[in-house]
Amino acid sequence: MAKIYLDPGHGGTDPGAVANGLQEKVLTLKIALKTRDILNRDYEGHTIRMSRTSDTTRSLAQRTNDANSWGADYFISIHINAGGGTGYEDYIYNGSVSNNTITYRDKLHAEVMKQVDFRNRGKKRANFHVLRQSSMPAVLTENGFIDTTADANKLKSDAYLDRIALGHANGIAQALGLKKKSGGGNNGGSGKQGYVEVITPSLWTYNTANWDDKAVIVNEGEVFTVARDKFKVGNGYMYQLKSGLYITASTQYVRYYTR
Ligand SMILES: [Zn+2]
Q: Helix, strand, or coil here: 9?
């Protein structure tokens, strides 16, 4: 059973960064709770502990002590950046780290970048308490700049926080090799399985949620099981299929139905 420790930055008397009508502590908690819920909805073989699940004050030492004594396998600290900039970046400790720390971060970074349209500020290293004092692989993510209007506008959207959380959940799941729940994550909670039927002579599928990452051509009449309901990619929408491939959600090319 993989033990995942989610650490929403700040909280209680420490709001973190504040700007544009937003508080860092509120956003980090929302993203962490969404990440927990997606992991529990879509994956199995893990257990999750959080440094806080409400607006409570926790010192940095309390967070790492808690994760260390619980024996977490992976520590993920979620933050929002400030100071004038734009985009997403993540950190691992700038001292000596395990190979797992590096690969866990690489996967998290890649999966978050797949889901969001934040500028990619890169993979960084720093001497942060939560990275230095945790005895398991630890990564800290900085999800946009609260004091940059363009980033703040994204962070004001609950759907955008969902995307950030999905990236975190998928990155964590990949790192720990979690198994996807069978038949899970189909259609926004109606409990029915979703399908797409190709209604055009031939149609590209995609390896990732990226219109440039073409995979194979499928043909009219073929039906695929939907693993994830449609979501925005660039100017359009895609479904993720059970096979792992992605396909357009445009009703010009596919018909969606549930059963
Ligand atoms: Zn912070």
A: coil
Which conformational region is residue 45 in: left (phi greater than 0), alpha (psi within -120 to 50 degrees), or beta? left
Compute the distance from residue 32 Cα to the ligand 1 centre, in Å.
Answer: 13
Nearest by Cα to 49 from 40, 59, 57: 40
Give which of 139, 142, 67 is closest to 106, Cα–Cα.
Answer: 139
Residue 236 token pair? 């359009």
Q: What is the pTM of this model?
A: 0.73
Cα 2 to ligand 1 centre (Å):
26
CA of 82 to the centre of ligand 1 (A): 8
DSSP codes joined into one string, 158-226: HHHHHHHHHHHHHHHHHHHTPEEPTT-S-STTSSSPEEEEE-SSEEEEESSS-TT-EEEEEETT-EEEE
**Which helix (H) or strand (E) element contains residue 79?**
strand 74-81
Catalytic residues: 142
Sign, CA dihedral 152-228-182-192, equals positive
Residue-wise pLDDT tens for the chain (259 aa)?
Answer: 999 999 999 999 999 999 999 999 999 999 999 999 999 999 999 999 999 999 999 999 999 999 999 999 999 999 999 999 999 999 999 999 999 999 999 999 999 999 999 999 999 999 999 999 999 999 999 999 999 999 999 999 999 999 999 999 999 999 999 999 875 444 444 567 899 999 999 999 999 999 999 999 999 999 999 999 899 899 899 999 998 899 999 999 999 998 8
The CA-based diameter of the chain, rounded to the nearest angstrom, is 60
